[in-house]
Amino acid sequence: MAVYTDINEGDLKAFLTQYDAGELLSYKGIAEGVENSNFLLHTSKFPLILTLYEKRVEKNDLPFFLGLMHHLADRGLSCPLPLPRKDGALLGELSGRPAALISFLEGMWLRKPEVKHCREVGRALAAMHVAGEGFALKRPNALALEGWKGLWAKSKDRADEVETGLEEEIGNELAFLAAHWPKDLPQGVIHADLFPDNVFFLDDELSGLIDFYFACNDFLVYDLSICLNAWCFEKDGAYNITKGMAMIEGYQSVRPLSEAEITALPTLCRGSALRFFLTRLYDWLMTPAGALVVKKDPLEYLKKLRFHRQVATSAEYGLIR
Amino acid sequence: MAVYTDINEGDLKAFLTQYDAGELLSYKGIAEGVENSNFLLHTSKFPLILTLYEKRVEKNDLPFFLGLMHHLADRGLSCPLPLPRKDGALLGELSGRPAALISFLEGMWLRKPEVKHCREVGRALAAMHVAGEGFALKRPNALALEGWKGLWAKSKDRADEVETGLEEEIGNELAFLAAHWPKDLPQGVIHADLFPDNVFFLDDELSGLIDFYFACNDFLVYDLSICLNAWCFEKDGAYNITKGMAMIEGYQSVRPLSEAEITALPTLCRGSALRFFLTRLYDWLMTPAGALVVKKDPLEYLKKLRFHRQVATSAEYGLIR
Fold this sequence. Notes:
The structure is a homodimer. A five-stranded antiparallel sheet of chain A has the order 1-2-3-5-4, covered by helices on one side. A two-stranded antiparallel sheet of chain A has the order 6-9. A two-stranded antiparallel sheet of chain A has the order 7-8. Chain A starts with 8 loop residues before the first helix and ends in an 11-residue tail after the last helix. The first copy, chain A, has helices at residues 9-16, 62-74, 115-131, 145-155, 166-180, 220-231, 241-254, 259-286, 299-310; strands at 24-29, 37-43, 47-52, 92-94, 97-103, 187-190, 199-202, 205-209, 216-219. The first copy, chain A, has two domains: 9-103, Phosphorylase Kinase, domain 1; 115-317, Alpha-Beta Complex (Aminoglycoside 3'-phosphotransferase, Chain: A, domain 2), CATH 3.90.1200.10. The first copy, chain A, is of the alpha+beta class. Chain A binds chain B through residues 1-3, 6, 8-10, 24-32, 40, 42, 47, 104-108, 110-112, 200-202, 288-292, and chain B through 1-3, 6, 8-10, 24-32, 40, 42, 47, 104-108, 110-112, 200-202, 288-292.
């Protein structure tokens, strides 16, 4: 639930004069997204999303995020499109925060995605990877190996509060991943956070991808490993190989995986499970009791991590040769 | 910030088949209202508000609230209109909660209302009182004298935690109001919560009143006393008589006050200040530290109450004869 900064009408109207967006009719804070404040605007022209970027987002990264959305939309990917100001800038300022107006994408995220949706997500992820080619800006992945080590250094002394033995288990995992992380897979722009709440559907058709605020440059197949973690496990913790198969098939129907990518997939799945485990663990330990944030359980990702540790080859994810 | 109950697309679509509302295109939880869960829906026909009534709202009161909105809208008041189901019912059920679809009203609530807006609010309040005539259902005001006594009984032992001496001061105030509360003023349907966030404006024109979930039968001029408390004090706690004058003038331009109402106004202002003081005090004392609710400061209304205690006649609120 996210409205950290309230805005008043006068400031908003002044902000809107910098755009060709029509007359303001209404604005409502919306309870989605956890990093920024988001408002749904109705104007005489079209509905819009107004995003105010809060402190957790690095201001220097905003041109990458907004430019990427433009680049992807230009290449036919259905994603929110930042509305340029009359002076051409994609980024403005409102209520003391960097702010952008972004096209409103109709569609709904699925609370209970099914196999067919996983196939669509695989396809869309690959389409995004292809569309991202040629994007000029770069952003290193702040939540890759070095970032994990930093998070772990800040959490490990208290990790056993969450489950006894965690300090040793995660320390070993990090050492394994540091030693076995692949070095030479195909790279490009990845979404890095393509969870169900970031994919919209209209009926059973995928209508768009949103929330590019973790996007960065990394191994493309690492993005697929994030999606396998985010979409293909059931509530009881079991991996659903039918979903995994559909997602990988969907992905390969647009961008076939190389032999090296297929071999690396189990290690990358361990890495992405660890990545979400570590950010959740950190938030879990550091968020003051009763803050206005719903804490996500880090143990969900610990279970996934343990599953991946048992996986020998990508066939176990449903990859068919 | 209010989304207490999440809904999934399947349930929502099944719910919508009971209405003639077009195809669902999107729904977003909105961060407004504190009692219920609210979603903004886009359909192929029109935008709508979906409200899920949470436990704090008495289910037996819903026909009063929804029927009242219908009654007022039928008589030309600009307020949200419940969309009837195909079977004529105004109330349905979704995700285990009573639920209603309500027309979306364009407009914005003012973070910094000015004198001219207070005049419009006075006019609209009186227009609502007139439009409410003939509404068949009744709902006693649960937050009148007896309700205040009940709240006070649950809070008074801890009142001095908030400010020393409060237990005695508020005890005396309640005794005064019980002895001097008027008995024979004009009654009707009142809004009972017409704060700035419940009044929408488009430019400087009032575009509608919302949130009728405290509406009830009581003295009409008591509603005006609530609005004087809610709109006519500045952030520093000072009463702005220019705003009060405009609001009372606006009210009387539609429904002139009787001599008895004018005489009673200072006592009613004490009552309404006490009413909001008591609910805020109760929430302040009872809400667990760190719950997902922003606690409003009860002392704001203690200051207003003390101001009203010094008022001798309605002229001090800006009422001109």
